[in-house]
Amino acid sequence: NTVMAAQMTNAHRRFLQVLMSNGITEASEARKLHQHCCETDKVYYAHDKLDDFINTINSHLQPLFMQIRKGISEDDGRAHYAVVNLAETEVTKMASDYTETELELFRKTMDLIISSENGFASSTDILNLADQLKTKKMKKKEAEQVLKVFVEDKWLSEKNGEYTLHTRCIIEMEQYILSNYQDVARKCNICHSLAIQSQVCESCGIGMHLPCVRKYFRGQTEPRCPKCNEFWSCDTP
């Protein structure tokens, strides 16, 4: 209740505005921003109070069905923050920014990524979908342009012609993905959040994020599955 009673200061508002305009902010940047906002607004600042600071903002966002959420990058395990709209589904959230055809291409790309073994979809496979869209067929050149925009807007990440979901997308759409892809979406056995890029146990089928695999097996001579204790056959990063 003390959090609910805490006043939303200009420092909180400034922090929220920057977070919203960024789309997603890495934790180290969020910490710098926290300090900057407090010092500019001449309010109490403590380096270890970022979570309290965010909780105060979240208590004021609650009636608006919004929340600042923390998520982990699947690439390097670094924490990030994003503002999530809890009242909308992925489709309505993105609908104001993209055409129906572009959204259909995004959904089909997401299907490919989530149902893949390694959490990636090749540009070739995605571009092959462009002329099969129900809303309106898309030329490959046009589809390439749209994919570029999805990367710029931090919904997708691209590495050597392979696409995966950006950390922002995972933070914002975790609930949507878990409820709409129940058969294929999995949670990481270690951190219990949605795992798109993951290693999977060949014996029992549990998945783990690559940074979580790294941490869990650090210092172990023979990596064994945390659930079934069978030998972990994937190459540990």
UniProtKB/TrEMBL annotation:
Protein name (record): Non-structural maintenance of chromosomes element 1 homolog
Subunit record text: Component of the Smc5-Smc6 complex.
Organism field: Illadopsis cleaveri
Organism phylogeny: Eukaryota, Metazoa, Chordata, Craniata, Vertebrata
GO terms, molecular function: ubiquitin protein ligase activity; zinc ion binding
UniProt entry keywords in alphabetical sequence: Chromosome, DNA damage, DNA recombination, DNA repair, Metal-binding, Nucleus, Telomere, Transferase, Ubl conjugation pathway, Zinc, Zinc-finger
Record EC number: 2.3.2.27
Pfam families hit by this protein: SMC_Nse1 (PF07574), zf-RING-like (PF08746)
Family annotation (PANTHER family): NON-SMC ELEMENT 1-RELATED, NON-STRUCTURAL MAINTENANCE OF CHROMOSOMES ELEMENT 1 HOMOLOG
Any Gene Ontology CC annotation: nucleus
Stated family: Belongs to the NSE1 family.
Function per UniProt: RING-type zinc finger-containing E3 ubiquitin ligase that assembles with melanoma antigen protein (MAGE) to catalyze the direct transfer of ubiquitin from E2 ubiquitin-conjugating enzyme to a specific substrate. Involved in maintenance of genome integrity, DNA damage response and DNA repair.
Places the protein is found: Chromosome, Telomere; Nucleus
Alphabetical list of Gene3D superfamilies matching this protein: 3.90.1150.220, Winged helix-like DNA-binding domain superfamily/Winged helix DNA-binding domain, Zinc/RING finger domain, C3HC4 (zinc finger)
Catalytic activity reported: S-ubiquitinyl-[E2 ubiquitin-conjugating enzyme]-L-cysteine + [acceptor protein]-L-lysine = [E2 ubiquitin-conjugating enzyme]-L-cysteine + N(6)-ubiquitinyl-[acceptor protein]-L-lysine
PROSITE patterns: ZF_RING_2
GO biological process terms, semicolon-separated: double-strand break repair via homologous recombination
Domain RING-type: 188-229
